[in-house]
Design brief:
With 340 residues, the chain is α/β, with parallel strands linked by helices. The chain contains 9 helices and 15 strands.
Length: 340
């Protein structure tokens, strides 16, 4: 069997990656060894951190070397197995890389999880029922300690993580307002994704609009962007507020040239006896099954509506990754690699 894969051919410079940063290869798949299994990749996910895999490993992995398959999570079907723990027909999600087939030995490094909720499209294992959804769930409920009647502000609210937070807040009796870059995205937030209100940060005065929705202040800010928006949110927090640091996509380019934004309103945390916490999603790994089951139940009950943004074809992975930095994605950005 032949396997097509995208390998690293150049280091990204500037905000966007280039098609020439990758090379499409076709290679022969080796015969499976004992303990290995072969996955046909169905969908691949993109996340902002992938750009750092190409540069320095993001502080998580060893830097990707030229000629190595680009890293990334995927969901696929086991089509051949010499591993007793994985059977033909199993649907799994984990570190698949940017390729059509993945040979895996089942060791913890690959983070392969069996997809148990089979009534929904398999793509959801990379979005609302995968690490993206779990990040929304644990970030809001466990790190943010969401309470009923909380005033919740969410940045990048139509992104993969943010697109789940509005409904998750609503389910628990809280009221969420999301920030987005276009009027179309703002309508998506209020008409489909459970948000009480929306702010177009490109056109509107963000501080004034926060005051409009939450005149008494913010109880919980779920931050996906950092920088100026985080600073404005800090100026609006009320006593005992919680700030969840989930992402900082606005600073990813500036981090490379040491010109990151310096917060001005950090003192508001002490003044309001507030908390600001970061988190690592795999710290909650022992609770993933519980979260998957509960989120799937809410989807089946119509309480949670998810949003996917789908491209097709392995060759479109670089385009899909750039869409995150261009603000073009609406919901979880995915690429379909093969038919189910």
């Amino acid at each position: 069997m032949k396997n097509k894969r995208l390998v690293l051919a150049g280091r990204p410079e500037g905000l966007l990656i280039k098609q020439t940063d990758f090379r499409l290869e076709e290679v022969e798949l080796p015969t499976l060894k004992e303990g290995e299994f072969l996955i046909k990749v169905l969908f691949l996910s993109v996340a902002p951190v992938m750009k750092f895999y190409m540069q320095d490993g993001a502080g998580i992995e060893a830097p990707l070397q030229f000629g190595e398959t680009m890293r990334g999570r995927g969901v696929g079907e086991v089509i051949e197995s010499k591993n007793a723990d994985f059977e033909i027909g199993d649907i799994v999600q984990g570190k698949c890389g940017w390729q059509e087939y993945k040979i895996c030995d089942g060791t913890p490094y690959h983070m392969m999880y069996k997809v148990k909720q089979r009534s929904l499209p398999y793509s959801t294992a990379l979005g609302v029922l995968g690490m993206t959804g779990f990040t929304s769930y644990f970030g809001l409920y466990h790190v943010g300690k969401l309470k009923a009647d909380d005033n919740v502000l969410v940045s990048a609210a139509t992104g993969g993580v943010g697109s789940n937070v509005g409904n998750l807040a609503k389910i628990k009796g809280a009221r969420a307002v999301g920030l987005a870059s276009t009027d179309e995205k703002c309508r998506l937030l209020t008409e489909k994704l459970g948000y009480h209100g929306a702010i177009n940060y490109k056109k509107e005065n963000v501080g004034e609009r926060i005051d409009h929705f939450f005149p008494e202040g913010i109880d919980l800010y779920f931050d996906n962007v950092g920088a100026e928006i985080l600073d404005i949110a800090l100026s609006k927090i009320r006593r005992y507020a919680r700030v969840v640091l989930c992402g900082r996509i606005s600073q990813y380019e500036k981090q490379q040239d040491n010109s990151e934004y310096a917060l001005k309103n950090w003192h508001k945390l002490g003044l309001n006896r507030a908390q600001m916490n970061g988190f690592f999603i795999y710290d909650f790994e022992d609770q993933f099954d519980m979260a998957e089951k509960e989120i799937a139940q809410w989807i089946s009950e119509g309480k949670l509506t998810y949003q996917e943004d789908m491209l097709e074809g392995l060759e479109n992975m670089p385009t899909a990754l750039n869409r995150l930095f261009e603000g073009k994605n609406k919901g979880k950005q995915l690429v379909k690699i093969a038919n189910t």
